Each structure stands twice: as C-alpha cells, then as structure tokens.
Amino acid sequence: MSKTVYINDRPLIVDEIYQEKFQFSQQYLVMNESKNSLAEAMQLLEQEKTSGIIFLSDNVNETWKRLVSCFTLIEAAGGLVVTVSGKMLFIFRNGKWDLPKGKAEFDETPDVTALREVEEECGLKNLKIVKELNKTYHTYKEKGQSFFKVTHWYQMTNEKEEELVPQTEEGITQASWLTANEVKEKVVSNTYSSIKELLISVLQ
Q: What is residue 186's DSSP assignment?
C-alpha cells in the first residue's frame, strides 16, 4: 500500500514497484530506489523542480521508515467539524484555509489533542468525535531543523453550530462554518495539499 508525505506542499508517494501508477507518470516524476536515493527525491521537491514524485520501492514500509528517520518526528491532531446541517468548520491562517489542529502535549492521546486544539482555536465547547479519519504527513523546517509531522484527524460534530471565536494569538484571522459548495469553491483552491487529500477522502 502506498504512503504519501508532502514536502514543500508537493507529494512524495512511496509505492510498490509492481503497482506502478502509470496514470500519474505524466503529472509526477517516477523514480526507482534501485537507481535513485530518497535524498535526491526530497531535494527535487524542496527545490520545486517537480510537482510530485512517485518513489518506487521493493519494500514500502522499510523505505518509509528510512524517510521518517531523516527528520525529527512531531505528533499532532485536529478535527473536521461537521454540523447536523452539513456545514464544516474551517479556519483562515497565513493566507490559506486550514482545519484546526495542533501539536500533542506530553502524554496526551491523539483524540484528546484533537478536541483540545479545535476548542482552543475556534472557541467551541460542545464537541463530540464521530470517527477517526486518515492521517496526513508533511515536512517543514523551523530554525534550521527539519520536521516530519504526523497529523491524526477526527471527524467531529457540533450540534448547536456555536458562535466561533478564532484564536488570534495563533495567527487565526477567521473561523467559519462553510457549506459543502463553499468548501469546493473557496477552500479547495486555497489550502494545503494534505488538507485537499483529507477532504477528497471525506467528501467523495
């Protein structure tokens, strides 16, 4: 089974050699671990020299472990809140639409982190987890250090569609309840690739 991490908001898809996705070959660069290194693939993405890479491997899990070992691992969690009427909660931060999320505190389980972060970033109180969603993975650099962030996602419900209070000290300038059409029109064109991946899995 393939695994995807976003480097510089561009996908690095680690896939099995015998399951090569030929339909991606025109859009993404295809590399093979027998000829290319992970370092080469990551450098191409960081330098924006390709829109994405499929990295073919004999052993996806082992290649993925080597990839993760190149970074400092960060665990985070967040939520996609959906009301009874079908509206979804999004925040606007750093010029992009995003979902509320944050780093786990010491000895905190992902579901507890997700609830706490959504409550803090949007001022909500009556949240309930409905189900666990797919994890997303992306890398980033901060103060010269490279991080690999694993984000655990949960679908939540807020029956009362509470008034939202964006956490401005975290750089959140807006928090909004959006319809499915508004998400497709406003969010999809101006969000991170990892969030798009999550939305596709939920909205399809």
A: I
Say how many Å lie between the first and final Cα of the chain, rounded.
20
- DSSP, collapsed to helix, strand or coil, labels residue 112 as helix
Three-state SS for 183? helix
Look at residue 158 in the predicted model and tell me its pLDDT: 85
| Residue 35 vs residues 2, 30, 40, 85, 140: alpha-carbon distances, Å | 19, 11, 10, 52, 26
Is a pLDDT exceeding 70 seen at residue 33? yes
Helix, strand, coil shares of the chain as percentages rounded to 5? 30, 40, 30
Residue 161: per-residue pLDDT: 77
What digits encode the pLDDT tens for the residues 97-149? 999 999 999 889 999 999 999 999 999 988 999 999 999 999 999 988 999 99
Indicate the DSSP class of residue 162. P
- Residue 167: how many other CB atoms lie within 10 Å: 18
Tell me the three state secondary structure of residue 99.
coil
Q: Pseudo-torsion of CA 161, 187, 7, 35, nearest 10°?
A: 120
H or E, element range at 199: helix 193-203
Distance of CA 131 to the CA centre of its chain: 17
| Overall pTM > 0.85 | yes
Q: List the one residue out of 74, 63, 52 whose CA is nearest residue 3.
A: 63
- DSSP letter at 108 equals -
